[in-house]
Structure formats: C-alpha cells, structure tokens
Amino acid sequence: MDLYAFAPIAALLELASVAVNGLASLFTPFAGASAMALAIVALTVLVRICLIPLGAAQARAEVTRRRIAPKLRELQTRHKKNPEKLQRATLELYAEEKASPFAGMLPALAQAPVLSIVYGLFILATINGHPNALLHETLLGVPLGTSFLSVVNGSAAWPGAAVFLGMFAAIAAVAYTSRRVMLAQQAQSSEEMPATMARVSGVLSWMPFITVIFAAIVPLAAAIYLTVTTAWTLGERQILRRRAERRALITE
Which of 13, 79, 205, 229 could be stapled to 86 by a disulfide with Cβ–Cβ 3.0 to 4.6 Å? Predict the structure, then answer.
C-alpha cells in the first residue's frame, strides 16, 4: 500500500508542494535557476523550527532519563529476583520524579509523520495525481530529480557530481561530529553503563554515516533536504540538551 496515495496524506503533500513552489517564486528574482533548491532549504528549516517544541521535550526526557538512571539500576539490583516488585518500584520512581518512561519516545513519534511527508515531497515523481514539478528544477545545472548514481552513470558526470560530493562531505562532517558527541556522552557515563550496552552504543555511533549512502541513492532534492536536516538536528540537539541540563540544575 502506497501511504503517500492515501487521501489525507496526498492532500498534505499537495499543500507542501504549493508551499515550496511559493517559496521558489519568492526566491527566483535573486536566486534564478537555483530558486527551488533554496526553497527546499527554506522549507526544511521552517518545518524544523515548528518541531522545536517536540525536540525540547525529547531533550528534557533525555536529561531526566540520565538523572534517574542510577536509581533505576539500584532498583534492578535490589529486586532482580522479583520482577513484579521491580515493575511497581520503577513506576513509583517515575511518579516520584514526575517523569514517564515513554517521555522521549512520544516526541520522536510525533515528529516522524511530519518529516515523512516533507521527505516524500522530495522523492515522489507524482503528487496527488500530477507530476512533481519540483524535481524538474535544477541546482547548478543538475536536475533536482536526478540521483548521484544516475549522474555518475551518465555521459556528463562532471561537474554535476561535484554538487553531490559537496553534500556528501557536509553530511559526513555532521555524522562525524554526531559520533564524537555520542562517544563523549558515553565516556561521561561509562562507569555506570554496562559493558554490553557500551559496546552497542559504540556500534550505533556509526549509524549517522548511513545518511551518506541514502543521499547517494535519492534524488538531489532529497539529498539537499538530508544535508540541511542532519546539520539542523545536530545543532538543535546540542542547544536543547544544554538548556534542559541548565534547567534541571536550577530545579534541583
């Protein structure tokens, strides 16, 4: 089943298409042929700004989870032979801390549908039954509907491939920074983290680099989106996490 063909989702995609085309019209006088690419950047940023409250809730949940982690481990050690008592004690702890075990999960789930619709706008050949005009625009002569693989396999790979390679470099830089941040956070809690979990976290720290692979497969429009949203996410998480940590210190 094609979820993008579902009437409500198709209608939202149509609205997103109108919005990005409207932004492109505003940018055309000074951006020329690159107006649509700039509109993709602008739309991505606008959507991410609207999702900041959810990101803030996720950051607060993460700080709370780290704060009560030692207490949870103490309960697990104390009641390891009594799962029912452990469950009751865990729920009591969350109630005492005015927290929820699902607090960080719900904001992430709430963001997913919005980001999926925006992503669909940049990969679908047709939207609500009509061609996606966005993919026929260009950036530095490269059609936004063209992928890196098709550019490389074409008769004129250069300089078109340079556009993609620049984005790959930007995404890889963000992924590298994200991994460094993740490992630094892991090092801070390494004494309290089980060895198995530490190894799993080390493997997961490489996951951001997978975005580079996706960027090579999807159309250029989606690669632009991935470049902007990964960079935004890295900066947003750092700012919101530090803000949540400062608030937690004030309330203690």
Answer: 79
Q: What single-letter amino acid sits at 243?
A: R
- pTM for the model stands at 0.84
How far apart are the C-alpha atoms of 69 and 75, rounded to whole Å? 10
112 to 106, 116, 160: CA distances (angstroms):
10, 6, 32
Q: In terms of DSSP H, where are the helices of 32-51?
A: 35-50
Q: Give me the residue label for tokens 């075990």.
A: 101
- Residue pair 206/179 in contact (Cβ under 8 Å)? The answer is yes
105-121 helix and 35-50 helix, angle to the nearest 10 degrees = 160
Angle, vertex CA 234, rays to CA 34 and CA 26, nearest 5: 25
* pLDDT tens sequence across 185-231: 776 655 555 555 556 666 677 888 899 999 999 999 999 999 999 99
Strand, coil or helix: 142: strand
Tokens of 11: 């209608």
Tokens of 99: 């927290």
- Residue 130 phi, psi (nearest 5): -130, 155
For residue 32, give the DSSP letter: G
In whole angstroms, what is the distance from residue 48 CA to residue 51 CA?
Answer: 5
